[in-house]
Amino acid sequence: MAPPGGITPKQNGLLRRMGQYLDARLGFLFILPVLLVVAYLLIYPVVTSFYISLTDRNLLRRGYSFVGLENYRQVLTDREMWETLLNTGAWTIGSLTFQLLLGLGGALLLNRRMTLLWLWRMLIIVPWAFPPIVIAFVWRWILNDLYGVLNYLLMVARLVDVPLLFLGSRTLAMPTAIGVNTWFGFPFFLLAILAALQAIPDTDYEAARIEGASGWQLFQHVIFPRIRFTIGIILVLRTMWVVNSFDFIFLLTGGGPGTATQTLPVFAYFTGWRRYFLGRASAICVVLLGVLVLSSWFYFRLFQLSQVEEE
Amino acid sequence: MTRSRRVYRLLRMGQKAVLNLLVVLLAVFAVFPLFWLVTSSLKLPAELYKFPVTFIPQTVSWKFYETVLTLTYFPRYFTNSLLVALGTTVATTAMAAMGAYSIVRYHHWLSSLLARAILFAYLFPRILLVIPFFILLLQIGLVNTRTGLTISHVVFTLPFALWFLVGYFKTIPREIEDAARIDGASNITIFLRIVLPLSRPGLVAAAIFTFINSWNEFLFALVLTTAKDVQTISVGLYGLVGGETMEWGQMLASSTLVILPVLFFFLLIQRNLAEGLTGGAIR
Predict the structure, then answer these.
(1) Which of residues 228-257 of B touch A (CB under 8 A)?
(2) Which among B26, B169, B183, B195 counts the fewest CB atoms within 10 Å?
(3) What angle do CA B136, B209, B41 make, to 5 degrees?
(4) Centroid of chain to Cα B227
């Protein structure tokens, strides 16, 4: 096989040798861009943000000075921070619970010999395609108290007398946000669990039925052990996503009304870009990271997910 | 057939009907917002603000689309999003392909590290990254530019693309490459002429996924771009929210336009997604 390219005999010597030199080191050269991106654009900023959290960096002025743990002290004694933490907890636990329930239930429903399975799969995955901004807008439109279709349906069904202020009331805002997040997140659970369910051979069911197992026992001993791992992984990933999610809450409720739905990422953003305290915002982000690391550790213990290393 | 048998059969049929109904309800739940979005955007302004609500537009009107496309900054935002998303896709896919190939063929030990690194990347809040990134771009002078935004998008799309392609390249048998190498082909030729064409489906999937992620992105666009001529649709649309009066009609029309490319690509690779993303979890 002739060597690639059309190199003229004149350039042959030097160019060829250079090409061969580089070619022999392809493995190294190819990984270089990725390493550079990771090092300079990922690791460096992360480390920098830790440093920034120890300064009084401000968006309005150039100079800044080192202030040690002052930001953390201020943040952890701030009443708003504790309210935000509570909101974040409610937001996370609520969203995940319902996403899991709906996803699991849906997966069990679809795990039968269904004719149009491909159709249902395709329809259920639709929420996934929505950009956060469109999700927020569409749902705001649906939940609108004056023109929203949800209120209309509720009133037609005589479930309520007056339109509900879904996103405008302090009590309803968070449950509503959780509801919208459930709509967005359940397909993920459903498809992953369904795939795991379909990997269970029919013989397992038969064997259990021969031994006289009832529906619930079937679930306990045949189904659950097989999907336990999948559920664990999905929960870990989704928890990270939900806790980290800024777009969703910011676009749907803006953290409001007031601070009723304010979660950590939104709080960090407001601290940095409305109150201009970049240093303090970084500190909040570090706290957020701490919360995530803690919950991941907790998950790994709970589900005994050390097998993830095999991935 | 005995009577009890008949009852049993009826119960089973009833049970099946209920289960099927639940499936339909679930699908409706998932799809309704899309349906509502599109039908609402095609209504006349008068019909949009009517209460009681109509489910199918009485008259189909493109008025909102007209307004959005001619009287707002929407086309500009759309172009910006397109440029940023395309730039991100090309850069990320190229780097991910090269890196994945390097990992699979040369630095195998890295792949297990990579899996854990991906989990790590997921762990880090994007909001954490935004602040130093903002400062970094400020220093380079790339704030408020599409290039700066593209770079930031590459950073958070690269990990997943890399991980995905590593998994994909692993499925390409070594023998083909070894055979070519025996025939005297250089490494780069093998990569360009053999491996890449063979992995086109995987590359396409990774590219589409990257495109969608970049197209949908909001936070970085919000923080890193403030000038109207550079902003992407996510931020541009968000600007429609400001003030007391919400231009619902325009919002609905522009949202439909925004979601169309995503939906299109999405349905293209939805099979891939449903299987690919869960494959790792079950394996």
Answers:
(1) 233-234, 237-238, 241, 248, 251-252, 255
(2) B183
(3) 100
(4) 25
